[in-house]
Amino acid sequence: MTDRETVEIEAAAFRRLRDHLMLQRPDVQNIELMILAGFCRNCLADWYREAAENRGMAMTRDEAREAVYGMPYAEFRARHQAEATPEQLAAFEARKR
């Protein structure tokens, strides 16, 4: 496999993960992702922005979040994000330890 093919496959896998979280599972809360996987949509947006900046492209956090969420972050939050429950917050804290 060439380097270009590797990049294309990795990019396709990222797009599939992003689309899965955006379209098929917007109900999955970021805190649930953090508890179970140690990353969330905001992490993906941060990694996306860092990758752009490492290639000399300026990108704001809001632009990166919109690329990952498929809409402005505030709109996604209003549509899909619920306040974390006390149980979720406790599980998140326990995972951090």
From TrEMBL:
One Pfam assignment: DUF1244
Domain SMc04008-like as annotated: residue spans: 28-93
Domain of life: Bacteria
Protein name: DUF1244 domain-containing protein
